[in-house]
Amino acid sequence: MKTDDFDYYLPERLIAQTPLDKRDESKMMVLDRHTGQIEHKHFYDVVDYLNEGDVLVLNNTKVIPAHLFGVKENTKAHIEILLLKNIKDNTWECLTKPAKRVKEGTIISFGDGLLKAKCTAAKEEGIRHLDFVYEGIFYEILDKLGTMPLPPYIKEKLDNPDRYQTVYAKEEGSAAAPTAGLHFTQELLNKIKNKGIIICYITLHVGLGTFRPVNVEDVTKHKMHSEFFTMSEETAQILNKAKAEKRRIISVGTTTTRTLETIMEKYGQFGKYSGWTDIFIYPGFKFKAIDGLITNFHLPKSTLVMLVSAFASREIILNAYQEAVKKEYRFFSFGDSMFIK
Questions:
Q1: Residues 294-318: tens digit of each pLDDT
Q2: In contact, 256 and 57? CB cutoff 8 Å
Q3: Out of 37, 224, 274, 318, which could bridge 278 as a Cys pair, Cβ 3.0 to 4.6 Å?
Q4: Interhelix angle for 314-326 vs 303-311, to 10°?
């Protein structure tokens, strides 16, 4: 299976640069994963495709201002970092630029010394482990010094940083938003609940694993970076009951999907679990957790296109993407949505 098998033509003008004024007015393609049949709707119509008793699972991670600009203490060279994941205490895995300037022992200063970091390990692909030193509360300092880490294909400035958060974002720790959830409004969530659909939450802090490009020709040789997930006892009970009663579990986003499938693959049932996942889902994968998927339109040749191709099929997904281009859907993080049933 080749990475090029998951390529498709996308005009640059269809890459959404800004969010819509109203979150739930984005387009929604409804795709039957068995027949390939396509319907064109709006996201607020999603309630019509959910049945009483369905369980909708959302990722409640919150994006932190993970993009920091600092200087090396000795040379004053400019260093850019992206916080990827908290390894332990004050040690974070970070993506650094230019990485060649950051070696073990390098000290970087941010905000005139309000925050300092010492490199304790130099890894491949620009990854560094940094120990942070500060006084006060780390996330409050990040709010002062950091900026929202928008993906590189978004060139426009984001006027309201809250638009890169879901309305239910709660657990701080992500380097990127779980973008399938950006379409929900509180009003729409209330409508869904009122129809008898059960809503529950998991947490997966989105890091490099989700958006790192595939740089190998053979898909199976790609290595995912690990990301931290957690599931509560309450969510586990809701999901196990739904499974036992053969009710649908609808996953909102690829991050939620990877969490649910990791737990089912590892433990055979849902439970109060937390840990690191580097699960890589591509065609041939046997889904054990989900029955439906709400997602966005993903980058060509990405692990996310591979995941949705595993849930439907490569042919059905690429045909749907071709149709989305024809109908001028908006793509990627601030783009339109797809409900795969």
A1: 999 999 999 999 999 999 999 999 9
A2: yes
A3: 224
A4: 110
